[in-house]
Each structure stands twice: as C-alpha cells, then as structure tokens.
Fold this sequence. Notes:
It is a single chain. By secondary structure, the protein is mainly alpha-helical. The protein has two domains: about 10-220, no CATH class; about 230-440, no CATH class. Helices cover about 85% and strands about 0% of the residues. It contains 17 helices and no strands. Helix 3 (about 65-80) runs antiparallel to helix 4. Mean pLDDT is about 90; it is low at about 1-5.
Amino acid sequence: MSDLGERVSPRRVLALAVPALGVLAAEPLYVLVDTAVVGHLGAVPLAGLALGGTLFTLVSSQLTFLSYGTTARTARLHGAGRRKDAVAEGVQATWLGVLVGVVLMVLTQLLAVPIAELMAGPGPIADAAATWMRVALCGAPMVLITMAGNGWMRGVQDTARPLRYVLVGNGVSAVLCPLFVYPFGWGLEGSAVANLIGQTIAAALFVRALFVERVPLKPEFAKMRAQLGLGRDLVLRTLAFQACFLSATSVAARTGAEAAAAHQVVWQLWAFLALVLDSLAIAAQSLVGAALGAGSAPRAKGIARQVTWYSLGFGIVLGVVFAALAGPLPTLFTTDGAVLEAIPHAWWFFVLMQPVAGVVFALDGVLLGAGDAAYLRTATLLSAAIGYLPLIWLSLAFDWGLVGIWTGLTLFMLLRLITLLLRARSGRWAVVGATRAEATAG
C-alpha cells in the first residue's frame, strides 16, 4: 500500500491477537486437565466425560455467533465513536445468551438420557454422560454470557480483560476439579460441578463489566432479533463445518483403528493450529469493523491486506516447522508402529495446508468484521457440498483411506480460499456505516 496512513502497526495486531489466542486456548487446556483428573476414575467415567463433553462442544460451537456476530456489530459502532451503543449491543447479546442458555438447560434435563443413548447405546457410558451433562449444562447461560462478553469486548478492541476473566474462571475450575472428584468423593459429577463454578465466575465478571460501562441494561427484543438474523448465517456456516469434520472422523473410524488413531493425532494438531491462526482473524475482525464504522473503506481494505499477509507468513512458518517435526512429533502421541506408519498419509496434507489456512482464516475475520456473514455462509456450504463431503464418502466407498479424507479437506480449503479471495478482491464487502443495516441501506 502506498498510503501509510491506511496501515495498522504489527504491534497493534498482536496486542489484539495474543490475548484472543489465550481465550481460545484456555478451554481446550482446561479440558485436558479435566480429562487427566477423570481418567484416573476408570474407563467408564472417562468415556462418559468424552461423550458428554463432545455433545456440549457441539451445542456451544453452534452458538458462536454470540461472540463473532457481536464483535461484527460492536466494532462498527466503536469505529464510529459510539462506544455506548457498541456496549449496548453487548447487553442485548448477553440477554440473548441468558434466554438461549435457559432453554438449553431445560432441554438437557429432559433429553440428556435419550441423547446419550442415541450416541453410545444404552449402558453405563450413556448413563455417565447424561449425569455429567445434566450438571454441566446448568452452566449453559453462563457459557453464552461469556461468549457475548468476549464478542462486545473484542468489538471495542479490548481483548485483555476477556483473557483475565476466562483464566480466572478456568483456573478456579482446574483447582476445584481434583478436589471435588477425589477428596469430596463426587466422582464424575465433581468434574461437572467444578466446570459449572468456573463458568459462573467468568460470566459474573463479564456481567460486572457491563455494569461498569453504565449503559441501560433492559432487554430490547428488536436488537436481539437483528442479532439472531446475523446468527442464522453463522449457525448454518458452523453446521457445514461440523458436517464435514464429523464425516471425516466417521469415515476414518470405519476405515480401521490405525487410520482412526492417525487421523485423530493429525486432526488435533490441525485444530490447535486453527486456534492460533484464528487469533489473527479476530484482530482483523475488530480492526476492519472499526474502520468501516469510521467511514473509511480504504483503511478497511488496507487492514485486510496487511493482516492477510501476516497470516500467510505465519502459515508458511507453521508449515516449515511441522514439516521439520514430521519424524519426532507423532511419537509423542503414540508408540504404536501401525499408527505411526499411517500418520504420514495425513501429515503432509496438514503441513501443506498451513499457508492456505493462514489466508482463509484471515479473510474469514475480514468478512466477519464487515458483517458479510451471508456470503461466508453460502461460500462455506458450497465448498462443503462440492469439495469435502463427496470426497469423504467416496473415500469410504473406494477405500481411499486417509489420503482420500485429507484430499477432501484440502479441496474444501482450496475452494474456500478461491471464494474468499474473489470476495476480497471485489471490494463489495467494504461498505461503510455504523451498522451493517446502515451500510447496506446507504
């Protein structure tokens, strides 16, 4: 870019991205602690935690619009110099989280057993999962309040406080979990209670932050409906991701134990690096939304280019690092010779996709910051329907194994890359205005 005034410093991007990465990584790290504690109870409690935790994650991931959608709306208002209006969006997202969370909590009490039995079949594993979910999902409103809090704070370019709040909540949970499980003798339920207490503490800190802002706290259903409109597109987009990833896991499991284990190792590394790259996308979302809210499409486009180049460079570095670790790193996850032999069939796809993922995640953040969720929804659904899902199930039919599965993922990412680059290049996403409605109306 020739106009240095349209640039944003790397330090500013990192100031937003690094705390955001901490928030994204805090929950997976807590799950590892929880798993280690419960694992000593035996196979059935651990399997119950795995099933219950997976179902919890599936539900919560469908509702990430409370964070990403709220950031898109508040960032524009913040950029327009309307901080109180930006925080007011956070208030309404918080109310929405409470309402949706209460519904989820009630449904869980009624349906935990049949859902667990549907997934695992009747027996002790389903019983353990249902018991854990009934306690843990009492925290659904708190989880969604935390998502909303993350959303509005990212929008006003404050990613440090959310990190502190989440670390406090998860830290308390990590301390209480072994105490409740063993000395208190609560077993698997103790894990869920510790989880619930941590979620409540984090949610209380986010609610307190709203009180400090001194904005009206009453619910406004018109704003909630507008947020749900954006949320619908993001939910459909997330469904496309989940359909793809669950299909890949299912096909790997049907291929054989070694293939399933190898896929799990590489997939978990992919998921972890996705979190790392997503932190840059969150910075892009906040900065682009603020630029558009301030009425500067050139600045928004300049930020989009910068962050995309940063993320591409980071993706290349990650690819090089994990190419070098192709030999030693898998042995940290397994010593099974057959699994280690299968891992390279997925590993090199994973390595080569890191630069692609860098660009894709950055542009996701750019378009989310612009509130261009409808385009993201359509592009993701088409990429899944044309690229990923057909190859995944053809892999099962023709016994292509991990090569077929990861070829499908690669095609999915390449199609997303093409659709996102076309949109970014068109510039049609960069419409200015304090809200997306004002921008499109203008």
